[in-house]
Write a structure and sequence with these properties.
This protein is an all-alpha fold. The chain has two domains: 90 residues, no CATH class; 159 residues, no CATH class.
């Protein structure tokens, strides 16, 4: 029962972050005006704004103008709901709150970066605030957070420097370094290093697949935040089922 309750809560939080994803890059208020169709601008009544259900009932179309609604809205609400449901079912309450909020921020950052190749500073600040509060309330260890920040910032910065040195190209943006700070503080050094490895592997695979279909282009931009976020959330979840291995790595 707890899973379904927090799945619903997470889906509603995801609905709010859908507003953030749409409006933040446009420098619009995320509070007002109320939710509306981006095509016809007609306000959406509350009974047509139920996460997941409204999208399915309306077959992914606006009830007024019948234009297609981006599947982003369904995915963000569904993924957010699943993560919140899992977190509050499997983690102690304080850890579940931190993991759920951080994951929601990561999903938003990833979607925005994938669309416009930019990580909004506002969401980075929100992530930093969550991390600071989690340290203050004892959810995260300050020592592990600092080591994680070193791993999350130092290694990507080194990769950026080497990429620039050999190719005269900026392999990743400074927003990725800021994201690495949040992820490192949340995950700690060992999980952060694993996250960087998996994200790099996924990014390389994506670049190869895209190159096969569109041709090789060394200057083709590739947003890194989605791979970092997916890897971080996945490794965090897996680590909760592999505590023996993780504890051994930390002790080493």
């Amino acid at each position: 029962m707890d899973f379904y309750i927090f799945f619903v809560i997470g889906a509603f939080i995801g609905s709010f972050f859908n507003v953030v994803i749409y409006r933040l890059p446009r420098e619009e208020s995320v509070v007002k005006p109320r939710s509306h169709c981006p095509k016809c601008k007609v306000s959406i009544p509350f009974y047509r704004n139920i996460p997941i259900i409204s999208y399915i009932i309306q077959l992914g179309k606006c009830a007024n103008c019948k234009n297609n609604i981006s599947i982003q809205y369904l995915f963000v609400e569904l993924i957010n709901g699943l993560i919140w449901g899992w977190a509050f079912t499997n983690l102690p309450l304080p850890e579940a709150i931190t993991a759920s909020l951080i994951s929601s921020v990561l999903i938003s950052i990833s979607w925005i970066d994938a669309k416009i190749y930019m990580i909004p500073l506002d969401l980075i600040i929100v992530g930093v605030i969550i991390i600071i509060l989690s340290i203050i309330f004892g959810v995260l260890s300050l020592y592990q957070a600092l080591l994680g920040i070193l791993a999350g910032v130092l290694f990507p910065a080194l990769m950026m420097g080497l990429t620039w040195l050999f190719t005269r190209r900026q392999g990743m943006g400074f927003g990725d370094l800021q994201l690495g700070l949040i992820l490192g503080a949340w995950l700690g050094p060992i999980l952060m290093i694993l996250t960087l490895f998996l994200a790099s592997l996924l990014g390389l695979m994506a670049w190869i697949i895209i190159s096969l279909f569109k041709g090789v282009d060394r200057n083709r931009p590739l947003p890194f935040a989605p791979y970092l976020s997916f890897s971080a959330i996945s490794i965090f979840i897996v680590s909760n089922y592999s505590t023996t291995l993780i504890d051994h790595l930390i002790m080493v």
